[in-house]
Write a structure and sequence with these properties.
The structure holds two protein chains of two kinds. Chain A has helices spanning 54-72, 104-120, 184-188, 191-204, 222-234, 239-243, 304-309, 343-348, 399-404; strands spanning 3-19, 22-40, 43-49, 88-91, 125-143, 148-166, 169-179, 214-220, 264-266, 289-293, 296-297, 318-319, 328-329, 333-336, 352-357, 362-365, 370-375, 377-382, 385-390, 393-398, 406-409, 414-415, 419-423, 426-434, 437-444. By secondary structure, chain A is an alpha+beta fold. Chain A folds into two domains: 3-207, 2-Layer Sandwich (PmbA/TldD fold), CATH 3.30.2290.10; 214-444, no CATH class. Classes of the chains: A alpha+beta, B alpha+beta.
Chain lengths: 448, 445
């Protein structure tokens, strides 16, 4: 056997759903189980069960060994792991108010208040929903290198969704706010402001125009630039897809790919950010690292396996959704570093373009760097002035080409995308953002 | 392990004693064997055992839900207590009528296959070998993917006397193939699914995906223009199943967050579109005897010659609308409550083949993978064409690069020009290709 680890996971969550003025559903859940991973002669075996007794652990280790053996005899896969130093660490989160100690009634009251604000903020709102979730996770990792890591985390998240209608025309707006923090996060929130803005955004889109189509100079806001950093750059920099030869970055580390001002970072150490964590699911400490630094591709995000394969240091980016999944390379908080242009300066040089504001989803095909980012709403920019309001659309392009088309980087850094990223069936908490960024020749998938 | 049915009964009895109005208990026990393929070879072989129990408790219509992965009597009692307690913290809901009463249902053939259920890890590796052998026959491609085989037993009991147990098997194969020639990159991805081993065609999938990847070498940009659109079989499946699931779910409709709300018996598509959803299709991927609340599955007409005939209901939304549940409650996992989703989509066929439709298209775009997923609230569609070809003068011209599509689902459905007579059959579903009237394509030129 070349390597083995055992991971025990305990998750406790509470959710509250308030919709159209009524507390509809309150749920409580507990996940509890373990998984074993064995690397033998270059092949992996993995086994998981919902139990953590000695017999459970022995059985899944035996299973994983047996599975690795049967694979090893018929594969040319040459898996290996970075021989990291032995780690013996316990990490406890510093939260002010552990949500597990808050009565459900308090959570219900608070979420009901937010929903009331959302519903009452605009007369055109026909559907309003606010969701709440807190999640406690305890992960214990032991491995054959002698490591023993215990990591606890707490996340709290609320989501707001509003639908506005006028005749048969409907528009929607969505907002997610989340932190790696306790219940103090929602208590401190200026939810009145968030609720009013979300409701009015849905309502104002009723009067907005259909988006145009074609190539445009665009100014991306903090959320859309986060989507771009995450989808177009971050996923391509995940070293598992570089090690397999799939990513467009497979031969590009060390190359200049963008203008000198552009730097893109993945950093799980930002206090309270939704994608932050102390240790990854291999027990490696999370660290800030540059993917692109002053225009040059300088680093990738690594697991123990990808770092061994590519002769690099692990970066603490191997994350697993729960004990039923293998740790794979994932991002944390991914952002573009701010520079010195104000929003006004970015817009004033645009003759005809689009200001892209807010975004909910995106995806990328890493073998081509073909990315798509959703945009919640837009504004036409004409002769340096913000003009017509536009309904939602998507932007897309090729990572390598678009990186060269960045023409200005703003000074107003914000993380704006707390939420989930999906990869290989696993949903992981991440955040993303950056300052406003101007890009030329972006493709806009509009209707006219 | 304690018998699942006994455990469910204990949890149900406990919840009833706690004074809830109605409740149901769901127990799920599954084993999934997975082989992951990377770098054109087998990378990981896994076995995942998963079992859990959940309780939905209703008090004056408010819902409390709790689940646990601990399969023992004490834990079952604890989640009953938790769900009952949470239900009393919600607000009363006069729209909640009732959970379903027990009803007999006819058996559905082909949902459990002993060959799949008893397939060893070695057997799953052999399926993976078949996939890889198919790919290597074409050669020159970098292959990744997975083969998953799952066996599951689920029990559902409710306080009105529903008491059902169903076993099922599933297998899912997915594969991506990447071909590089100099600076050119071609790629393609596809899948195969089945409830029985004999429904799977691993070798054919491996070969087909690698052949297709090669066709995508040399992608080029196009000018922004209005052009005809042909969705191939897979995009039709994901697009229409998505519209039926997210826009025709009675939950979306009753909440006024679907662009198809209030359109029952209206014309929503051209005459060419007829969609049936059949939850009883033999060996169907989405088939079962009962839905996630114990309502017998059925076959329903969703759209008939362009006219919207039915929304998809679970027991709550059916009670609210004063109609019978259509049996579309699903429970993907004991960790979640009930959702509304289609089962097996069957689309009525037209009279021209896809090849003939392409030959008749002077200027168009063919999309072979991916979905046009609308915002269900307003039907707006804006997304990239990730696997598409330009069609010029009746012939496939070249693969597309940097192309996006902007459309509205309402207009798209009304603009269906033709449905192909050839189709792809995933177990239970019948999926032709569809030709749409002009849509906006944004290009990189």
């Amino acid at each position: 056997m070349d390597f083995a680890d055992l991971r025990l996971v305990h998750k406790v969550s509470t959710t509250v759903s308030v919709q159209d003025g009524r507390v509809e559903e309150v749920t409580g859940g507990e996940d509890f189980g373990a998984c074993a991973r064995v690397l033998l002669e270059g092949a992996w075996g993995f086994s998981a069960t919902n139990g953590v007794g000695f017999e459970d652990l022995s059985r899944i280790l035996d299973n994983a060994l047996r599975l690795a053996k049967s694979s090893a005899s018929r594969t040319s896969y040459s898996g290996s792991v970075f021989k990291s130093e032995r780690r013996q660490v316990t990490h406890r989160p510093r939260v002010e108010v552990d949500p597990r100690e808050i009565p459900e009634e308090d959570k219900i009251d608070l979420i009901s208040n937010i929903e009331r604000e959302l519903r009452g903020s605009d007369s055109k709102i026909v559907n309003s929903a606010v969701g709440y979730r807190d999640l406690y996770v305890l992960e214990n990792i032991v491995d054959s290198l002698g490591s023993c890591v215990e990591d606890e985390s707490i996340r709290t998240l609320i989501s707001l969704s509003a639908v506005a209608r006028e005749g048969s025309d409907r528009q929607s707006a969505f907002e997610i706010l989340g932190e790696t923090a306790g219940f103090e996060f929602v208590r401190k929130l200026d939810y009145h402001d968030v609720a009013v803005k979300t409701a009015r955004r849905a309502s104002s889109l009723l009067a907005a125009k259909d988006p145009p189509s074609g190539k445009f100079q665009v100014v991306l806001d903090n959320a859309v630039v986060g989507l771009f950093a995450h989808e177009a750059i971050g996923h391509n920099a995940e070293a598992d897809s570089v090690a397999t030869g799939e990513s467009i970055f497979k031969d590009s580390v060390g190359s200049y790919m963008a203008q000198e001002e552009l730097s893109i970072v993945d950093d799980p150490t930002i206090p309270n950010a939704f994608g932050s964590y102390a240790f990854d699911s291999e027990g490696i400490k999370g660290e800030k690292k540059y993917v692109i630094e002053h225009g040059r591709l300088v680093g990738l995000l690594h697991s123990l396996e990808s770092s061994a394969h590519l002769s690099a240091k692990p970066t603490g980016n191997a994350r697993a959704m729960d004990h039923q999944f293998l740790p794979i390379v994932r991002m944390s908080n991914t952002y573009v570093e701010p520079r010195d242009l104000s929003f006004e300066e970015l817009v004033e040089d645009v003759d005809e373009g689009i200001y892209c504001k807010g975004g909910y989803w995106g995806y990328v095909y890493v073998e081509r760097g073909q990315f798509t980012c959703n945009v919640a709403e837009g504004y036409m920019v004409k002769n340096g002035e913000i003009s017509d309001h536009l309904r939602g659309f998507s932007i897309g392009g090729n990572t390598v080409e678009v990186l060269k088309n960045v023409t200005g980087i703003g000074n107003d850094m914000k993380l704006k995308l707390p939420g989930s990223c999906g990869k290989k069936g696993q949903s992981i908490s991440v955040d993303a953002g950056g300052p406003h960024v101007r890009v030329r020749d972006m493709i806009v998938g509009g209707l006219r | 392990m304690i018998a699942l049915n006994d455990l469910a009964k204990k949890a149900l009895d406990h919840a009833i004693k706690l004074g809830v109005d109605q409740c149901d208990v769901f127990v799920q026990d599954s084993s999934t064997r997975v082989v992951e393929i990377e770098r054109s070879t087998i990378a990981t072989s896994s076995v995942i055992e998963d079992s859990g129990i959940s309780v939905r408790a209703y008090y004056r219509g408010g819902l409390g839900f709790a689940y646990t992965m601990r399969i023992d009597a004490d834990s079952a009692a604890e989640i009953s207590r938790r769900a009952a307690s949470l239900s009393k913290k919600t607000q009363s809901d006069p729209e909640f009528k009732s959970l379903p009463e027990p009803r007999d249902a006819r058996p559905v053939e082909g949902l459990y296959d002993r060959e799949l259920a008893e397939m060893s890890a070695e057997g799953v590796l052999r399926l993976s070998d078949d996939l890889l052998n198919g790919a290597s026959e074409v050669g020159g491609s970098l292959v990744s993917g997975m083969v998953a085989v799952r066996e599951e037993t689920r029990c559902l009991l409710n306080s009105l006397g529903v008491e059902i147990e169903e076993r099922g098997t599933w297998s899912y194969l997915s594969m991506m193939s990447i071909v590089r020639e100099g600076d050119l990159v071609g790629s393609f991805a596809d899948f195969d699914g089945g409830r029985r081993l004999r429904d799977l065609k691993a070798y054919e999938l491996g070969r087909k995906v690698s052949e297709k990847a090669r066709e995508y070498l040399g992608a080029r940009s196009v000018k922004t223009s209005d052009t005809q659109l042909i969705l191939g079989h897979v995009p039709v499946f994901w697009t229409l199943a998505g519209i039926v699931g997210s826009c025709l779910s009675a939950e979306s409709v009753q909440r006024d967050r679907s662009f198809l709300a209030g359109r029952l018996n209206d014309r929503i598509a051209s005459n060419s579109l007829t969609i049936t959803d059949d939850g009883t299709a033999p060996s169907g991927l989405g088939s079962s005897i009962w839905d996630g609340e114990g309502v017998p599955r059925k076959r329903i007409s969703v759209v008939s010659q362009g006219v919207l005939k039915s929304y998809l209901y679970d027991s709550y939304t059916a009670g609210k609308a004063g109609v019978e549940s259509t049996g579309h409650a699903v429970r993907p996992s004991y960790k979640r409550g009930v959702e509304i989703a289609p089962t097996n989509i069957q689309i009525a066929l037209g009279d021209r083949t896809l090849e003939e439709i392409i030959a008749d298209t002077k200027d168009g775009v063919l999309i072979e993978s991916g979905a046009l997923a609308p915002n269900p609230v307003n039907g707006e569609i804006s997304t990239s064409i990730d696997f598409g070809f330009k069609i010029e003068k009746g012939e496939i011209s070249h693969p597309l690069k940097n192309a996006m599509i902007g459309a509205n689902a309402a207009g798209l459905l009304r603009g269906i020009v033709a449905v192909s007579k050839d189709y792809r059959e995933e177990p239970g579903s019948i999926i032709p290709a569809i030709l749409f009237d002009r849509v906006r394509i944004s290009g990189g030129l």
